[in-house]
Amino acid sequence: MQSKSHYQIVISGVGGQGVLFITRLLAEAAIEKGLPVFTSETHGMAQRGGTVISHLKIGEFASPLISPGRADGMIALKAESLDQHGGFLKPGGWAAVNGPAPLKMQASSTPFYLDADRLAREMDDPRSVNLIMLGFTLSSAQREGFGHGSLHCSLNDIATVLENRLKGKTNRLQSSLRALRAGAESTTAT
Predict the structure, then answer these.
(1) Rounded to whole angstroms, how far apart are CA atoms 133 and 32?
(2) pTM of structure
(3) What is the mean pLDDT of each run of 10 residues along the chain (190 residues)?
């Protein structure tokens, strides 16, 4: 069994959704705990609207890219990302997916769904989908027991990273923390 600080996570979405931003938040939280981190990303043809996938490895690894079938988990900022990049998940891996739960589920993974787009619209903050999904992922890991019961960081750890990154940007910090909490307080749509 892996230790609690040994993970491979794929974060997938499209340009402009904040895939790289939440990858950096998770990486910085790991660094604050003294954990080794690798990140890598690929971008689609367009900067905004093109496919973006980020690989996050926490623990002792030799390379930054995650091989297909090896990711412990996935954060999909668009529901289509699960179909597009779900092949990175290992059997029994988890996925936090932005979208309503479909009628038919994939058997090889454990998906947890939240319609973060709807929640962001209700909050009148459409750019907050990434932080809503991050909050949802962290709370679901603890609540549902995936990621060995919790990931390498908590909501408080991410809030601290946000506070450090957004010093002097009070409005942006408050809206970011609000989105993170909204995701954490949401339950899965399955």
Answers:
(1) 22
(2) 0.89
(3) 68 86 95 92 64 92 91 93 92 91 62 93 93 94 66 91 94 95 78
